[in-house]
Known about the structure:
- This protein is α+β, with helices and mostly antiparallel strands.
- It folds into 4 domains: 4-107; 121-222, PAS domain (Beta-Lactamase); 227-302; 310-444, 2-Layer Sandwich (Heat Shock Protein 90).
- It has 11 helices and 12 strands.
- A hairpin with a 5-residue loop joins β1 and β2 (133-136).
- The longest helix is centred in the middle third of the chain and has 40 residues, at 224-263.
Amino acid sequence: MKKIHDYTPVGLAITLFLACLATAGCAVNGYYVSMGIAFLLAVGCIGGIYAYMNRTSRLMKQFVRAVRYSEFPEAFDPKQLNGVSPELLAEMQEALSSYRNDLQKRESRLQYFRALAEHIDTAILVYTPDGALEWMNRSAARLVSAAIDESRSETYVLRAPKTLADLRYLHPELPERLRKLTPGQLDIVQIAHRGEEPTQLALSGMSFVLQGHRLLIASLKNIYSALDTQETESWQKLLRVLTHEIMNSLTPIVSLAELLDTQIEQTKSLTEEKADMRQMLQTIARRGKSLTHFVNSYREVTHLPPPQLQLYYAADLLNDVARLMQASVSIRTACPPAPLRLIADKGQIEQVLINLVKNAVENNARHLTLSAGVTTGGRPYLRCEDDGTGIEPDVLQHIFVPFFTTKPNGSGIGLTLARQIMHRHHGSIDVQSTPGKGSTFTLLFPYPA
């Protein structure tokens, strides 16, 4: 049975009007009993209208609350909303359903772009014009955490920087350069490394307005590896051309010299002249063969086979090298407590370490340490540290250049080959040296998956 407030407001209003007229008519004519009945009917209509308005008000409050707090019930509570217009209730439910679907699509797109920003290898910073950091992705967090110097307690702000000013420990000029960064501008910052490969950041930025607030986005791309790889590829192309052209020229020279040496006996020249001619031809042939051997050695760099990657324990790899080279120098190995595994070509990495040990011995090293670990930025590494004579600064910048050597009988291929092997492993090789104190070579491997 329907209650009085279940009827439509129009019906209640008409009934109220008629009840008021009946009450007034009965009062004028002295029908007091009928007047009381009509009065009670009018009061009931007023109560019905009030109940309808109250339930409509509750419906609107529930609708507004659902929109404000993103609460989307499948249907409104029929007990609380009994008597509300079904058409109004259906419209509100349809509006909430449409709003919910739209919000879910926006949230899905937001999660997609956030995951994309987190997994790209470019550091991204979002900050306000006054320097407050709003957000940074994982690459940015890894970049700044790699600059933490454990000997300086103040650099620990880089674990969770709040403002651009905190990035001064990464580079003193970086906060100011980020503030002055304009859309379309490109800036380069060279950052000193602490156990990581050298960092050369290319800065670019853009700005946008979100909810009336201006924000800036800066991307910080480490271009050192790209430049290093491009340089290595350029050297490879040059070596391929040189070896091809030199070999094409040397081969006929050596062949002709040997041919002339065999035919010289058929000449009618004096014996003394024959001996001189034979000596000169033999000299040409010998130097030609030496140059051929010299050029062939560089084919190792240009024709290096791709690494056969497998999973190895770093401790096993270092111990094998130490056992192999312990007759040449005193070698100590140091590995982290937790087993460290590398994805590498064991033979090629061992060859790199053997070359580094040989170089240390040639530089009068008496003690050498082979170690493994993980940098503050999360990259696994192998390290060769010696107490030899060290490398002079003007020589240090050229040691990876092909053909460059300071040794009388050196070919300049060892470190070039080491660099190429690390590039094939998607890593890098870095060196730090102090003349008179020794050198430290670090093999950096890619971040673990």
